[in-house]
Amino acid sequence: MEKPLSLREAMDMPDPHFPIKLHHCRYDQYGATTFPPHWHEHLEFLYFVEGEARITCNSLSYDVGPGDLVVVNSTDMHHGMSLSDRLFYFAVILDPSLLHSQLIDAVETKYITPITQNRIVFRNLISNDPAVTDCIDSLIREYKGREFGYELAVKACLYRLLTVLLRNHAITRQSPHEYSARLRNLERLGPVFQYIEENYRSRIAVDDLAAIASLSRYHFSRQFKELTDKTVTDYVNFVRINKAESLLRTTGLSIAEVASETGFGDIYYFSKLFKAYKKIPPSKFRSESEGAIREG
């Protein structure tokens, strides 16, 4: 079997001498995939302006709305789905090299190097923090305006934002060894996540996934659990149920057809699992979604 491409995203910068970029992200359909599962070594900030979305980082999903900031740390596996018919957010992506200084001073050794090496990581979802909002608003305004000296202003905003995050939203620290091990495991298991994303409608066997990663079943299952905090079965069901949620909202397929389309041969098992993951039966979810559309 040919291995799918890795989920590691190549990240080109418009200006290699100032490696940061700003995307304006708009989606006009509930259930639209805003970005598929992937990871990169860059820092990324998703700042939501209009509508709602569900962003998953590693094993945790967050429902976000206007004013929320999602911090995607280096090597975080992440993907997103729109929960609105009108969604708009900014994505600020920067190469960690932008933060380094030529002088190995206290700032570099105590803060910047640990951040760029993932020895310090930040909480993924940040809400109701005026200092964070002010920093990201200023950064976006300076980047978009591009007045003389904007590079200085953008970099100053970044350092100010990192200061607020360090003081209020730093949650874990990884050793260099842990960071290197995570990078290796992500590289090895990248094709596995891609395979699941492309084949969730079909039967997926743990042995087949282990073969894609060139690992024994035991070592593969252990590494998969370490990266996702889920068993393979849990993760595959997580993907399928999210796909089913989108189909229930955006198509006229019956519940039985949605179950079949997302890899479930048994509608009763599908309904039980959907309720376990979403805290609502699929039939009730469908009726509430249709009601929301009529009201809108």
Automatic annotation (TrEMBL):
It comes from the Bacteria. Pfam families: AraC_binding, HTH_18. SMART domains: HTH_ARAC. The keyword Cell membrane does not apply. Residues 190-288 form the HTH araC/xylS-type domain. GO terms for molecular function: DNA-binding transcription factor activity; sequence-specific DNA binding. Keywords: Activator, DNA-binding, Transcription, Transcription regulation. This is AraC family transcriptional regulator.
